[in-house]
Amino acid sequence: MFRLAHPQFLFLLLIIPLLVLMFVYARNRKKKALSAFGDLSLVMRLIPEYSGSREILKFIIWTVAWILIVIGLCDPQTGSKLEKMKRKGVDMIFALDVSNSMMAQDITPNRLERAKQAIVHLLGKLENDRVGLVVFAGKSYIQMPLTTDYSATRLFLSNINPGMIPIQGTAIGDAIETSVSAFGNTKQSKAIIIITDGENHEDNAVEAAQAAAGKNCRVYTIGIGLPEGAPIPVYSGNTQIGYKKDASGLTVITRINEPMLQDIAKAGKGIFVRANNSQSGVQEVFDQINKLEKAEYNEAFFSDYEDRFQFFILAALILIFGEVLIAERKGRLAGKIKLFSSKTTQK
Hints:
The protein has 347 residues and is of the alpha/beta class. It has eleven helices and 13 strands.
């Protein structure tokens, strides 16, 4: 197992592009200054000991050394002792709707971001429960398998966007089936939390919820959106250029489908909660899930980690020492080597 004990130092790598720009700028200034004395190729003959390639080599060495130093500061560690620990918890899958209608802004900042916030809020209440992520629109996919690594879950959440599934729609039934398959053969109590506006469903989600409940998987639904609805923004890059229109040229208004989500939750032996601008609805769902029986399971993890920063720091010091030994000027032997003669042969 590999990890960085202090990953916050990685931001120091952002200095490298600035150093490259400064180096290129300095070389261009030097060439312009030499050109002021006459033809550059002729001036370079007057300073035969000057080596532009060595200057570049020394800069590259310093850059690599800096990268190694930054990695050393991050303190790379490898797990050296694997242990198993017994925990009690519930397995839950968050099935998140990423269809275009989730970009509607009737809930600030928009439905999708509000849904992400709801999941992050619920993650803050969990301890030993395992969580997974399923994303869906016209199709559904497992975004992250079951894990107790809530930090990784937050990272996966931050990268979720409507563009990750090209097939549009709201296939809630397919999302429930994918979520059930993501549990595998676990013996823990299972919960599926569907977070969607519930609009424009394309399959029999109620039957899928009933089938899930028959496999000891409770289905909870959190409705994102307001009854009055909102238009669907259309973007070009990061810039909003208008709203989605139908074939008649009228602006499409997307509204939450509460009756459908209530029916799904009822069939899945769960509850339905509607999120709005004042509450995310996760507290009610969390209270219900917390009542489920928590089964014991074994989890393997690395208990001891060994520091490996010294190897990177040592490599950086060797490079710096080597860079000092490289002269900026050509040596006598290098100065005598001429690949191309400037003399012309007279016939």
